[in-house]
């Protein structure tokens, strides 16, 4: 589903923005113990997992942000249930990579372990800037703000996501087995209508 006008393409995408909990604390700990290469090994393993799944599923690994990624899914190519299964698998892969690469060299265990997610669905402008593919649109901004808002009013945010109401309904998340979801209100900075933004909070279960 796309429209091309003067080299610019309009596409509909599910935007998944995910982040590694406590990444700054973890990296600082590894730097102190001269084990920073372990962090690179973890990220490389996570990237390898994403590339394999991307070939299987067809989603796009859009951008790496230092401690997380933006993934783009065609809304016609994946169901809500398959998306939740993928995110559960991603959480499990991260925990395994963490255990094999990082946990045995840390000087402290005082950190949150896992991933957090923000999800929205909408139309994006796809273009090329400086020979790189770029996407511009509200859905990218909302997904990023939702991920950031996971930690609002939650001391145990890992393995959870915030998803916009329209994306939740469009993907039929309410009928997906082995999840818990409830409607919440969060303040999203720099988003129109973001002061009282309603979204669904979902706990990913496997």
Biggest sheet statistics: 9 strands, mixed
- Give the helix/strand class: alpha+beta
Q: State the total count of DSSP E strands.
A: 9
CA-to-CA gap between the ends?
32 Å
The percent range for helix content is 25-40%
How large, in whole angstroms, is the Cα Rg?
A: 17 Å
CATH architecture: 2-Layer Sandwich
Question: Can you give a write-up of this model?
Answer:
Helix 1 packs across helix 2. The protein has a single domain, classed as Alpha-Beta Plaits (2-Layer Sandwich). A hairpin with a 3-residue loop joins strand 3 (60-64) and strand 4. Strands 1, 2, 3, 4, 5, 6, 7, 8 and 9 form a 9-stranded mixed β-sheet that branches. The chain contains 5 helices and 9 strands; from the N terminus they run ββααββαββαβαββ. It is globular, with a radius of gyration of 17 Å. With 206 residues, the chain is an alpha+beta fold. The model is unreliable at 2-6 (pLDDT under 50). 35% of the residues lie in helices and 34% in strands.
Briefly characterize the structure.
The chain is an alpha+beta fold.
Keywords:
nine-stranded mixed beta sheet; 206 residues; globular; single chain; alpha+beta; 35% helix
Fold topology:
Layout: E1 2-5, E2 8-20, H1 23-32, H2 36-57, E3 60-64, E4 68-74, H3 80-101, E5 115-129, E6 132-136, H4 138-149, E7 160-164, H5 165-170, E8 179-186, E9 197-204
Parallel strand pairs: 5-7
Antiparallel strand pairs: 1-2, 2-4, 2-5, 3-4, 5-6, 7-9, 8-9
Helix pairs in contact: 1-2, 2-3
């Amino acid at each position: 589903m796309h429209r091309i006008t003067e080299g610019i393409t309009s596409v509909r995408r599910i935007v998944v923005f995910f982040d590694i909990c406590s990444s700054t604390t973890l990296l600082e700990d590894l730097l102190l113990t001269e084990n920073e290469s372990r962090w690179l090994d973890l990220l490389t393993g996570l990237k390898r997992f994403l590339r394999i799944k991307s070939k299987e599923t067809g989603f796009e690994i859009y951008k790496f942000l230092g401690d997380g990624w933006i993934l783009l899914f065609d809304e016609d190519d994946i169901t809500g249930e398959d998306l939740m299964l993928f995110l559960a698998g991603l959480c499990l892969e991260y925990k395994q990579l963490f255990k094999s690469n990082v946990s045995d060299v840390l000087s402290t265990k005082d950190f949150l372990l896992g991933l957090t997610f923000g999800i929205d669905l909408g139309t994006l402008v796809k273009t090329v800037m400086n020979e790189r593919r770029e996407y511009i649109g509200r859905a990218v901004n909302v997904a990023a703000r939702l991920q950031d808002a996971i930690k609002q009013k939650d001391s145990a945010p890992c393995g959870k996501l915030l998803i916009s109401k329209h994306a939740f309904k469009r993907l039929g998340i309410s009928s997906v087995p082995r999840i818990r979801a409830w409607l919440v209100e969060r303040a999203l900075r720099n988003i129109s209508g973001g002061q009282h933004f309603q979204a669904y909070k979902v706990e990913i279960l496997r």
